[in-house]
Amino acid sequence: MKKELDLVLAPEVAFDPALLERELLQQAGITQPAEAVFIHKIKRSIDARGRKVQVKVRADVYLQTPDLSSITPTYGYPELKPDAKRVLIVGAGSAGLFAALRCIELGLKPVVVERGKDVRSRRRDLAAINKEHLVNPDSNYCFGEGGAGTYSDGKLYTRSKKRGDVQRILQIMVQHGATPDILFDAHPHIGTNKLPILISEIRETILAAGGEIHFNTRVTDFILEKNQMEGVVTASGSTLEGEAVILATGHSARDIYELLQARNILIEAKPFAMGVRVEHQQSLIDGIQYHCDGDRGPHLPAASYALVHQVPFKGQDRGVFSFCMCPGGFIVPSATAPGEVVVNGMSPSRRDSKFANSGIVVAVNLEDMDLKQYGALAGLRLQQALEQKACSAAGGTQVAPAQGLQDFVKGKVSASLLDTSYQPGLASVDMLEVLPPMIGQRLRGGFQEFGYKMRGYLTNEAQIVGVESRTSSPVRIPRDKETLQHPQIQNLFPCAEGAGYAGGIISAAMDGERCAEQVAVLVGR
Fold first, then answer.
1. How many C-alpha atoms does 341 have within 13 Å on its Cβ side?
2. Where is the FAD-dependent protein C-terminal domain (predicted)?
3. How high is the mean pLDDT of the chain?
């Protein structure tokens, strides 16, 4: 027997494990809890619409211990048979790792090929970017074990629930070391400090079952026979062959797009978005969102926000919207080649930085790109041009161009800049000289509107930092809707963000699983 509860609680109860458990038992009418009582916490979400912040909690209280396998299942990864069919997985991001786990469940041997380093070794290259302004093209914030998601904000929320089982992905993460709260919170988050541990555990699971992972192994060519993918060639000149290739290289592997084009494998330009990061004091955002003086207290998490507005430019409306908002976080350098400046955001699990940052970006449609000579790579070339211009404008290192938020809207170069979480440093620049007019002018209109929606948001106590250009892939690698194979090349499975079919850790993981399942159908296991 179970009792289903939907409660509205004060934050100090909802976010204190002991008080929450006591409240749930009391609401279920249990005054003397027995060992058999089991609490299944289903969902927790903050409602800050009123003057008083409340937290909605949904939970089931079982009066007898239920079958836990139906509530908190665990997944097994048995040792693969010696003759298991090999599946090449290019990229060890969220999609690649979950594709590998699913292959093992299906009796296929995953061979993961990753251009970058393992998650621990990767840290030295991140330090070199921040402190010495040195960008390793194969090991950086985008490339390496865990992919771009490892050192991003670690958000585990997705709207792509029709594409797979979100709870299954979250449960596998918990099985590999993530906190169980990700199964409960409406907008779950792991944090950049905990993701490396989780990824290391997934790696050990893959290896223990008999899978392979090859680090520092960049793919430079494909092995093609009569429009059939049979394997890959690496930078060292070695070859790897398999029954199929799952291409899960992420949205920044520009050399893969160029390789596909050079090999006359069909790719397409697709819409994406570019803009800037805006950084406020977290206390300012807390004050706006929680209707307080900036001190949110010990129980509420750092406040976030989501903003969107349609802004015209030369008669064409485009969406201006927040992207990857990082409460209590940091702005980080995400270039993948020297001579570029790219910024992204991340947060530790505690979200305890004094800064809040968010991408504020403008939708870029195909008709906005006057780069027809580049064909399917038009958006990629637009990204590159903007990133190189940002680098040049700020001095040619990883120092990023920046401007006070209100100064940007008024068209005034900032006399000075604020403290920032961005370690390489900032240079005061007229960002309208860096950004294309279709982006810069729309950002000005968007920020003005956001100032009306969030009173206090539009201020020179905030600043914009450029450029946020890697929101998603500007290229789509087409695939059949049913088989997920490339329409032209058999045994090639374009996957997740790099192929244009996902937009975050969870959606990429689900897409990786789907590709593995279709490979199993193809090879007959």
1. 30
2. 271-471
3. 94
